[in-house]
Specification:
The complex is a heterodimer of chains A (665) and B (158). Chain A is 38% helix and 14% strand. Chain A contains 25 helices and 19 strands. In chain A, helix 7 packs across helix 14, helix 10 crosses helix 11 and helix 18 packs antiparallel against helix 19. By secondary structure, chain B is α+β, with helices and mostly antiparallel strands. Chain B has 2 domains: 58 residues, NADH-quinone oxidoreductase subunit E (Arc Repressor Mutant, subunit A); 86 residues, Glutaredoxin (3-Layer(aba) Sandwich). In chain B, a hairpin with a 2-residue loop joins strand 3 and strand 4. In chain B, helix 2 runs antiparallel to helix 3 and helix 3 packs across helix 4. Classes of the chains: A alpha/beta (665), B alpha+beta (158).
Chain lengths: 665, 158
Amino acid sequence: MQRLTDACCGKCTHAPAEPCVKYVECRTAGPLCHDDEDCRARRRGLLSRVRREVLETPVVSVGTGTCGRGAGAMKVLEAVRAWSQNSGISVRVEETGCIGMCTAEPLFDIHAPGRTRLFFGNVRENQVSRILDAVLKNQTLPNAPRALGQLPDGHGSAWDGVNSLWEHPFFAPQNRRVLAHCGVSNPESLDAYLADGGFSAFAKAVSAMTPAEIIAEVERSGLRGRGGGGFPTGRKWRFAHETPADQKYMVCNADEGDPGAFMDRALIEGDPCRVLEGLMIAAYAIGATHAYVYIRAEYPLAIERLETAIRELRACGLLGANILDSGFSLEVHIKKGAGAFVCGEETALIHSIEGKRGMPRPRPPYPAVRGLFGKPTVINNVETLANVPPIIERGADWFAAVGTEGSRGTKVFALSGKVARTGLVEVAMGTPIRTILEDIGGGIPNGKKFKAAQIGGPSGGCLPEAWLDCGVDYESLRKAGAMMGSGGLVILDENTCMVDLARYFMEFIQKESCGTCIPCREGSRRMLEILDAICKKPDPANDAAALERFQGVTHLEHLAQVIRTTSLCGLGQSAPNPVLSTLSNFRAEYEAHVYERRCPAGVCKDFIDFRIDTEKCTGCSLCARKCPVGAIHGAPRSPYYIVPEKCVRCGACRTACRFDAVQVQ
Amino acid sequence: MSATELQALMQEIPSGDASSLIPLLQKVQEAFGYLSREAIASIAAHLHVSPAAVYGVASFYNQFRFTAPGRCHIQVCRGTACHVKGSLDVLETLQRELGIVPGETTRDGAFSLETVACVGACSLAPVVVAGGEFHANMDNEKTLKLVEKEKQVESCSD
């Protein structure tokens, strides 16, 4: 018996061919199928090894999610393996998902026998041997780098002078429910998930609850869709459950198209089994025998880990025919999205799975009544599904105890942009944005001033300082003129131009508009043209351009309202949001562009000129060497000069200058 | 691209199963780097739909390319976090250095450039993915170095 899913001895009757209702319990608390104290002891032993309550060899876990890999986690992983070979100390090396603290990547932790897990962040591969030497050979803490924190587990003895990881300012204000396993457990090990109580919710659902009871429980919990719309999950399930059909489908929407959002990727990379368990419970509740995970092809690692998990579940009979002898059968298929933002919309997603162009169609009929291949279909977001198992396991009241009246539970945000600590953040609904920005994120770096928080991606809005105390829940954000969206939270500082940002989103939406309905297809293009005109180089000789610009501006708000009220799908209806929210919160910045023809943030390239301050310039010639277009001239040791006609305003000289002599005008 | 390899890929999918169009296009692109006219015609014949229908679906999605990518394929992330941290400058630098715009391949077939909506690594913004490898916190200088390095790799392999 190497793994929990293995049989303990010949007497064990469990096999995928002979499904048993007590399988999950038997594998963790068993055996229950036969009575043998020896088997029970061995299973207990294995369980405590999987849970790492007893440890024979040290375990080093490296966070190798996509962001970790981008920061160099694979090199760290190699260095750990090399150290293990060279030092003669055998080490079990594990790969985990992202713990959420992306600024500290690459991140790894060392679990020495009898001690607690010790986390290190920003590890370079050349530091690995020094850290491992100290911790595993000498049983001491390395001088540098300092440990990020330790994980109190109630078994190992703690390291002196090291705080608990959960007390770190990044983690302390968080409420990690959905992310509980991410970055801590091995995402490729079904055993680790089972040992942590995994699939007991699913076992409870199929053995002790009827679909109607499950739906009632989810409805009572107040869980709402985490993908953007915020529709009550239980109600969606009820619609599909009550529609009679010979075939129904369950779909997990992992087509995370919002630029600036990556929680679904991290969740699947870090805890794929939990998402699948949620999907399986949902499929059972609505009566679907086929489930699809529609996932972006840009997430190869997430797809790989999902495939591994599905294979393992199939091998032990948790997927397939007559699961746990409940009469419920389920196959899970992975469908790779092909890169279309609009496919996050339910009906477009359905068309895409059917092999068609991903264009939305009018609703009703809603997918819950007529969806994939014309059959009732429920589509839930990754995070929504990951919330389901604990609701079944611990009950709706446990779930609803956190959050606000209309928005229960927690929400994961992808915090990025101009903030000191970026990463994946899970907080209770209703937590003020200020807490996320200042306490968790550590504020704005480089002494810059906060300008806005962009929340909800291209469908959301920009909230200025005055709204910082607004809580993150569906109602408050809507009131503030933004929306929850899928949870992208991009922080902007004074160096961000809001008109440029609105233009960026408009360009994105215009490019991604599927073209089905005219308001979105034509309207987004017109809006982009107006914004382009606002940011275009002033030409005093061209009066027509000025007229066009002013006409455009007077139309902008009206155009936005028309798009909002007449577009076919949710994406079209929310397409003007970036413009409307920046217009209402940062009108002065628009006016500076329109009337004064200047960009206060110094971003819009047609309005800025780079000049060298002759007082500050030491003539070091660094800027001239860095200039990609040869626009900077001068002689060493005397001030340099930028030729405005040649300058492409890339800012390379400004970054390079060590004397702050390059200025934007 | 050989016709037999293409046939072998198509055999994995039942003939006439139009719902498998996108997975099939993905497989073909993964194997050959892009979707050639011949490939589109063969796929259409295999699935019993018109080549126009196949092209209609393929051109709808950002993932599919109709020209061969360079030996070093460079993707610039244009997500929100990357945008506010200056990915446009990085993109412009690449365009200047390589002499191509997104969607194109250099004449010698060495480089191709593409923008992607978001690679989901926002904490590393701005991100450039070159030949599948992530490059974090890019600026003009690092971009120039990256191009320099890739050009050297290129000249060594010649």
